[in-house]
Specification:
The protein is an all-alpha fold and 155 residues long. The chain has one domain. It contains 9 helices and no strands. Helix 5 packs parallel to helix 8. Bound molecules: zinc ion (ZN). Zinc ion binds next to loops. The site of zinc ion has 7 residues, from loops. This is Reverse transcriptase zinc-binding domain-containing protein. It comes from Rhododendron simsii. It holds the Pfam family zf-RVT.
């Protein structure tokens, strides 16, 4: 599973957050509640359910909206799977690279949004999160392309 999170030309911060999410080691409210750090397990994004890794990254409207938007942009015609299953999605070459990059970007953006919602007591729109992660992926791909085409890499 590690090779689907840690891959060539990844964004280390995105891979690190995704790796922690896969291992369920991020400090979600269900864990903080167990450690008696917070007095409520309620998710700040939806305000209804218990915040766990599964809920935060896949099982509520907000994250589903982000995934569906991202899948539509990447022309992936299916519903999102669980994080562990998504990591085993088998594409080839550049398409696979784009997908893995997108997946880690989405996980990182959702985590960032979750942390922001705790501080600001409000969450951005799911489509805005998807668009933000898509733009970050595009910037990373442009950077990779720039690396390939630079004079320095041609020597
Ligand atoms: Zn929620």
């Amino acid at each position: 599973m590690a090779c689907w999170v840690w891959f060539s030309k990844n964004v280390p911060r995105w891979s690190f957050i995704t790796w922690l999410a896969v291992l369920e080691r991020l400090s979600t409210k269900d864990q903080l509640f167990r450690w008696v750090v917070v007095d409520s397990q309620v998710c700040d994004l939806c305000g209804i359910r218990e915040e766990s890794h599964r809920h935060l990254f896949f099982y509520f409207e907000y994250s589903r909206g982000v995934w569906q938007s991202l899948f539509a942009r990447n022309q992936i015609p299916r519903q999102p799977l669980e994080l562990g299953d998504e990591l085993f999605w088998k594409g080839k070459g550049f398409r696979s690279y784009c997908y893995k990059l997108s997946l880690t970007a989405v996980v990182c953006c959702l985590w960032k949004e979750r942390n922001g919602s705790i501080v600001q007591s409000k969450a951005g729109a799911a489509k805005a999160i998807a668009k933000g992660s898509f733009e970050e992926v595009r910037a990373k791909l442009s950077y990779c392309r720039a690396l390939k085409d630079s004079d320095q890499n041609r020597q």
